[in-house]
Amino acid sequence: MRAAVVRDFQRPIAVEDVPVPVIGRDEVLVKIETSGLCHTDIHAAHGEWPVKPSLPFIPGHEGVGIIERVGSEVTRVGVGDRVAVPWLGWACGACEHCASGWETLCLQQRNTGYSVDGGYAEYVKASADFVGLVPDAIDPLDAAPLTCAGVTTYKAVKVSGARSSDLVAVFGVGGLGHLALQYAKIAGATVVAVDVTDDKLQLAKELGAEFVVNAAQEDPVAVIQALGGADAAIGLAAAPKPFEQAYRSLRRGGRLVLVGLPAQNAMSLPIFETVLNGITVVGSIVGTRVDLAETFELHAQGRTKVVRETRRLEQAASAFEEVLSGSARARLVFDLR
Ligand SMILES: [Zn+2]
Ligand SMILES: [Zn+2]
Fold first, then answer.
1. In angstroms, what is the span from residue 147 Cα to ligand 2's centroid?
2. φ, ψ at 333 (rounded to 5°)
3. Is 194 in contact with 213 (CB distance < 8 Å)?
4. Ligand 1 (ion): which residues have CB within 5 A?
5. Contact, 83 vs 132, CB < 8 A?
C-alpha cells in the first residue's frame, strides 16, 4: 500500500510502498478515504515532543474510511461500515480514569499516528472498540477534521462549562477555532473570536461569532473586558501570548481552557489575581468515544460547518510547509479516493 512515512525527524515525510497491516482478533482493517492534517502530525514527524514516536512510523489521527476486514472477535462494527480512527486508538477500559469516563487520561492509551501507525496510508488497522462510526449523512471530507479538530474543541467547550448567558472568547480561529466557536454557539453562548488575520475573523463572523477582535490591531483584553469580561476563554493559538491575553480577558469566576500546544511550553500566570478572582485554569485533551459520537451527531444534523481544503497524500511534505508558514487557509484533508 501507499503510505506517507516518517523515517527520520530531520527529513521530510515521503510516500512509499509498505506492507498492508495484519489485524489481530479485536482489530479492523480500514481502507482510508480521507485523512486530515492536524498540527500534532507535524510535531510527531519532527520529534518535537518530550516522548517521541519510534521510527519509522505513519502519522495521521483523522483517518476516515471503510472497514474491509474484521478480526475474529469483533462484533461492534462490520465490513462496509464507515469509521473514523481517532487519536485515542486504544485505552485499557479498567483503570480509574477509564472507569470514570476519562479514558482520554488512561496511562496505557495508544495514540494513532504516534505510538501506533496512523491514517496517512491506504490502509490502517485499528481497535474495533475505539473506531468512531461515521453517520451516512456526513461527507468523509468533513468527517476527517471532526475526528480530531472537531471532537477536541467540542470537548473543550464542554469543559469550559459554557451556558446560554455566557460570553465565550475563542483565541485562534484556525482548524480548531472555527469549530470551537460553533460549539460555543450551539451551547447558546455569545462568542467573541480573536485572531490576527482579517479573513479568519470574517470567517468567524460568518460562522456566528457576535464579536471579533484583530489582536494585531487592538488589545483583545481591553475589548473583551469592555464587554464585561469572558465567562470562559478557550486557548487554541500556537504561542504563549494569546493564552496570557485569554487569561486576562476573563471576568471574576471565569475559566481558561488550554487546548493549543505552543512550542514554547510556558505561560505566565499571576497567582494573586487567580486567587482573588476565583479563576479556573484547566487543560483539555481530545475527547472520549462518546464525545466523538456527539460531534458527528451535531454535524449530521447540519449544525456545524467544516472549512477544509483537499490535497493528495503525495503532497504531505508540502502540506506540512503550508501549515507551518500559515498559508493554509483551512484544515487540510488528504483525499485518497
Ligand atoms: Zn489532532
Ligand atoms: Zn485506562
1. 21
2. -130, 125
3. yes
4. 38, 40, 148
5. yes
| Ligand 2 centre distance from Cα of residue 127 (Å) | 14
**3-class DSSP state of 198:** helix
Q: Are 191 and 210 in contact (CB under 8 A)?
A: yes
Compute, in angstroms, the gap from residue 149 CA to the centroid of ligand 1: 6
Mean pLDDT of the chain: 97
| Mean of pLDDT values over 213-221 | 98
Q: Encode pLDDT of 301-331 as tens digits.
A: 999 999 999 999 999 999 999 999 888 878 9
Task: Give the ligand at the shortest distance from the Cα of 146.
Answer: 1
Helices (DSSP H) in 38-163: which residue ranges? 39-45, 96-99, 140-145, 151-160
> Which residue has cell 510535531?
43
Q: DSSP secondary structure string, 159-171?
A: HHT--TT-EEEEE
Task: Please tell me the distance from the alpha carbon of residue 154 to that of residue 176, in angstroms, as a whole number.
Answer: 10
Closest by Cα among 261, 236, 284, 258 to 104: 284
Name the closest ligand to CA 106.
2
